Amino acid sequence: MTIRIDEPPDAAADDDVAGRLLACHARIRRFCATACRLAAAEDPPPAEVVEAAAGVRRYFAEALPLHAEDEDESIAPRLRGRDATVDAALAAMTAEHAAHRPLLERLIELTGDLTARPDRLPALRDALAATADALRAALEAHLRAEEATVLPALARLLPPRERRAIVAEMAARRA
Q1: Are 37 and 133 in contact (CB under 8 A)?
Q2: Topology of 17-174 in CATH?
Q3: Rounded to whole angstroms, what are the CA distances from 150 to 15, 67, 96, 142, 145?
């Protein structure tokens, strides 16, 4: 079984905030799947373990926090107060970001261990599988809720000028 990190899909609407968020969501799903494949891999080559574990660790330690900042600092303040349903979704989104932290920290710890010691995969397999599965389920529910309510609200409730400002803030976080 190969535990490689899948190639990213073509970037859709790179100048559109919803398109950027959907691309982030696709990456979140891909790295969750990679973590699950890593946990399920039987006797993979050490270099493959290191590559997969390092990629998962880096994504969840570095990139995912930027995505949460995009939502909590750039999107939520602009959408809040415009629609009661959206307000409820924003409150849930922010609360879930905090609730995901323990699973994220555990996944980062486990993949950091595997990056340093790929031979420990058999010993860490059960913990990695449980953590990756729990995180994937939690994040999938979170992403679906955002995609159902928050993302459509961007075009519906924010003028183009505000959406462009969000895109600029997202780019600045990554510069």
Answers
A1: no
A2: Four Helix Bundle (Hemerythrin (Met), subunit A) (1.20.120)
A3: 18, 14, 14, 11, 8
The residues near 18 (Cβ < 8 Å, ≥ 6 apart) are 151, 152, 154, 155
Per-residue confidence (pLDDT) for residue 12, from 0 to 100: 40
CA–CA dist 54, 67 (Å, integer)? 19
CB 3 within 8 Å of CB 21: no
Decide: helix, strand or coil at residue 14: coil
Residue 77: in which H helix or E strand, if any?
Answer: helix 76-79
Query: What is the spatial distance between Cα 124 and Cα 36, in angstroms, rounded to a whole number?
Result: 12
Write down the pLDDT at residue 6: 53
Q: Where are the domains of the chain?
A: 17-174
Residue the block writes with tokens 């373990």: 49
Q: Mutual orientation of helices 121-145 and 84-116 as an angle, nearest 10°?
A: 160
Of the two residues 52 and 8, the one the predictor is more confident about is 52
What confidence category does residue 9 fall into, taking pLDDT thresholds of 50, 70 and 90? very low
**What is the residue whose two structure tokens read 């995912």?**
64
